[in-house]
Amino acid sequence: MVGSMLDCYIASAASIHFAVSTENVILSDIDMDLDLQDHIVDKLEFVNGCRIPNSDYGLGVELDSLKLNNLIKSGVIKYSEV
Questions:
Q1: Residues whose CB is less than 8 angstroms from the CB of residue 42 and which lie 6 or more positions away in sequence, other chains included
Q2: Of 34, 38, 35, the residue nearest 49 (C-alpha)
């Protein structure tokens, strides 16, 4: 089983890719990203109860800079430079 707990979009995408590429995974609970504020270009798909991996390169997650900046300004996402 592959599951998620308080994961972000990037971690959820990695879990989805791992689950579909591993023959022995028969159950998954990867849904935390469905409750998150949207800050990516294309949402991770959920079709007929199945998570579908993005077909783009890598994990297929592209951050939307405008949405991300708006979430930072509104205080939903905390950001600080190190």
A1: 54, 56, 60, 62
A2: 34
The bridge status of strand 28-29 relative to strand 2-3 is parallel
Q: What is the mean pLDDT of each run of 10 residues along the chain (82 residues)?
A: 83 89 89 78 84 85 90 88 84
d(CA 18, CA 35): 21
Determine the Cα angle at 60 with ends 8 and 31, to 5°: 35
CA proximity to 53, closest of 74, 25, 82 = 25
Cβ contact 18:2 at 8 Å: yes
Taking the C-alpha atoms of residue 29 and residue 34, their distance in angstroms, rounded to an integer, is 12
For the chain, how many helices (H) and strands (E)?
A: 2, 4
What are the boundaries of each domain within the chain?
2-73
